[in-house]
Amino acid sequence: MAADVLVEAEGLAKVHRAGGVRAVDGVDFRISRGEAFGFLGPNGAGKSTTMRMIACVSPPSGGRLRVLGLDPVRDGSSVRARIGVVPQDDALDNELSVQENLVIYGRYFGLSRRQARDKAVQLLDFAQLNDKAGAKVAALSGGMRRRLTIARSLVNDPEILLLDEPTTGLDPQARHVLWDRLFRLKQDGVTLILTTHYMDEAEQLCDRLVVMDKGTIAAEGSPRELIERYVTREVLELRLPPGAPPPRPSTLVERVEVLPDRVLLYTEDGEAALAKANADGAEPITALVRRATLEDVFLRLTGRSLVE
User: Fold this and answer.
1) Tens digits of residue pLDDT in 43-95
2) What CATH number does domain 93-157 carry, 1.10.40, 2.60.40, 3.90.550, 1.10.10?
3) Long-range contacts of residues 46-52, Cβ cutoff 8 Å, at least 24 apart
4) Which CATH architecture best describes the domain 1-82+158-221?
5) What sequence ranges are listed for the domain ABC transporter (predicted)?
């Protein structure tokens, strides 16, 4: 494995014993040092299962996986000592103070009491929780708890930080604060690997990502590459009166998607497509021209049907 490749998977598979379900079905990917790499996909796509294999808590059923040049099954303890994990659930000790959560976690990694206290002070500053050092965790807001969970995952100065849905349930302000903290970590050379359901988060944070669906990888690339590859530069959204037919196809529109509440026209020039639709007799209630996003890519690759 090349020195700058920290995670490499070839034909990686995971079959759950209960029912023989192939949660991950032969995926290939490589993650380089200093990257922010994302796994996107609907529920049940295999994202979290892949993350658990990288984190050395779920052994692969097949294929090859190397993390930091090591075998996660044979060298699991060595790998875990060099990575940090931010799970979906915070799993903090509510009865302890913010600082105590950091100090005790540092002791788990073999830090002396003085080293653990010094590290806690550094991480409190990083997470902007200095004024909450003595507060009980139970009194923290959701955004503060997530920042504390990320700070705790950095106690061992990890080379790789795994983040499973890091901002789920947070308000926009808290999400942006967390994005800033994660961007700082990337600048400091930490490799970030994350799953998220927020497409704007993936566009903001990820250098590269894969879109997973039914245990396989449907697409891989940077957010901009995927948008250019799978959708047009702009999308025209039209809300039409009940019963009104959708606009006729034209040379200006690459694809038309009819939804229950609106019609999407994928085009390189939204204003020109709108003018053509109006000239053809369309009388939309509202019309919106917007740039195409990663969400358009995601929905094209995985569909709009809800997966339970």
Assistant:
1) 889 999 999 999 999 999 999 999 999 999 999 999 999 999 999 888 899 98
2) 1.10.40
3) 46/14, 46/212, 46/214, 46/215, 46/216, 47/195, 47/212, 48/88, 48/164, 48/195, 49/14, 49/23, 49/24, 50/9, 50/12, 50/14, 50/24, 50/212, 51/162, 51/164, 51/193, 51/195
4) 3-Layer(aba) Sandwich (3.40)
5) 7-239
